[in-house]
Amino acid sequence: MTTASLPLPTVKPSTQAAGDMDPQSFLHFGHQVVEWMASYREQRDRFPVLAQTVPGTLHRALPTQPPQQPSSMESILTDVDHLIMPGITHWNGPGFMAYFGTTGSGPAILGEMISSALNVNAMLWQTSPAATELEQVTLDWLRQMLGLPACFFGVLHDSSSGGGAITALAAAREAIPDLHIREQGMTGRPELPRLRFYASQEAHSSIEKAGIILGIGQAGLRKIGVDSAFRMDVTELERAIQEDIAEGFRPFKEIIVNELERYVVFVEAIGEQAAAGMTSHSHRDR
User: Fold this and answer.
1) What is the Cα–Cα distance from 85 to 113, expressed in whole angstroms?
2) pLDDT over threshold 70, residue 24
3) Residue 197 burial (CB < 10 Å; 0-12/13-18/19+)?
4) What is the mean pLDDT of the chain?
5) Would residue 41 count as lying in a domain?
6) Residues 183-196: tens digit of each pLDDT
7) Contact call for residues 89 and 51 (beta carbons, < 8 A)
8) Is residue 112 in some structural domain?
9) Pair (264, 167) in one structural domain
10) Cβ neighbours of residue 103 closer than 8 Å, sequence gap 6 or more
11) pTM of the predicted model as reported, rounded to 2 decimal places
12) CA 200 to CA 225: how far, in whole Å?
């Protein structure tokens, strides 16, 4: 890896003016931090999974007033060992089995370092063309690995339990062509039908919260049973849709995968429902 081919700036940037460290100091402390990370990864099985502290431990150890002068990197790194590490829950520890089954691998950590150095913000194609297109390609690889049809398209969200669920549900709601919710909203419109969306009974709580935030309400969510492999029961889903239509609901979306389910649920059968006017959303936490 080399930056030799990169064009040199015509004006030398001043890192000191912005309060940043000079390149030599960055290189010096960067080596220290990488060595520290390597040492931690080598002995992470020696730490207790849960922090052995009580609430308020770090709060009491820190000054109550903001510092008037910057701290040296030496003292900051010392504080990491003495103040921060005792209060860490070690998600990378081999004994950690709660929440999400993900770990920070070596390649992922190095990738985060490169991303941080470049200050990548992939909000739009223009804000980071390479990041945007890399995301599209790798997610399409994932689609193929999962055996999903080519019509599936995905994006990365910083929080699938919050922003991801809300965004997906909002997109489905706005896609109902004749209701004009984006322009006219949902309040004070007696002509609007009651909207209904579906998720398995194992779905993450963020799905229900997204419905609340978007004005569909808890009553707008109907939970569908699962089989022994935690897959949504497509027969029950179809029956629920027909019942809801008969009762005056407007079905518009199903959440077909969640963090507790093990497989994509009968994609072909769900696709038939989608073709009938509903949208499908594959949701997986991390």
Assistant:
1) 20
2) yes
3) buried
4) 82
5) yes
6) 888 888 999 899 99
7) yes
8) no
9) yes
10) 91, 92
11) 0.67
12) 6
